[in-house]
Request: fold
Amino acid sequence: MTPKEVLYVEDALGHAQFLKTQCQDAVDALQDANLKRQAQQWLQENQEIFRSFYSLV
Reply:
């Protein structure tokens, strides 16, 4: 990987980590079962995205 590509992957990992934190906060805060379930789905999807990016490094 070129240095520019590594920087891109690092940036993507940072964004994925931030979104994961935001989704987890939403899951913890939401009371409505449907909204909580949706946030949990987004959390799982984001974890998969993070793993995909992480596997590139």
Observations:
- Residues 3-56 form one domain.
- The mean pLDDT is 90.
